[in-house]
Amino acid sequence: MNQKRFVRRAAITVGVAAAAVFVAAGCKNDGHFSLFGYDTRPPFDSNIRSVYLPLFKVNAYHTNPYRNIDVDINEAIARELNQRHSPIKVVSDPAGADTELIGTVANIYKNQLNRNQFNLLREFDVMITVEIVWRDLRTGKVLTSSRGPVAPLPVSPFDTTLPAAPPPPPPTGAIPLTIYGFGRVLPELGESNTTGEQAAINSLARQIVNQMEKPW
Q1: 8 and 49 share a domain?
Q2: Do residues 108 and 173 lie in contact, with contact meaning Cβ atoms separated by under 8 Å?
Q3: Which of 42, 108, 126, 183 could form a cystine bridge with 60, CB 3.0-4.6 A?
Q4: Which residues constitute the signal peptide according to the record (predicted)?
């Protein structure tokens, strides 16, 4: 009986020692843990420490409750970076920034999904479309992935006398990345346009910060 207890204790001791060796092998000097390709450090480029974030330009027609949407989007991006413990800090002066994030609100749309027997809205989505360009101010390199060039229109098959369409001109400058944010609203639960707008803005902020992470 004593021998079995001794063997059990020895096995536990060996297991604890092995776990300690594993932890020690994975620990980094910065307090984070890395093992078998997995890392607890935030997935951001450590060479990028700051971003200049001017207010988004609003090209979409907007009225209440969508006023100040540019301010709300900027605040949501800064909050998302902070919540993810990103080393990238938002700064107010481009002269001292490593990068710059330029954005445009291209569209604000309410998609009606469901009505009740009194023709009142029961469910709808607030959809916000933005276009962003994230650029390294030190090198001029565009860091966001962009769309490909627009394909030329095909020649009409009904009129073979038409000449082939000329190729489109090469894009000038950075091609922005389009991102869509959605916010579901259920008025019967007391939710409103403001609820959907904030949900859509939070969705945009998450996707924008995703673009600022290092690629896998």
Answers
A1: no
A2: no
A3: 108
A4: 1-25
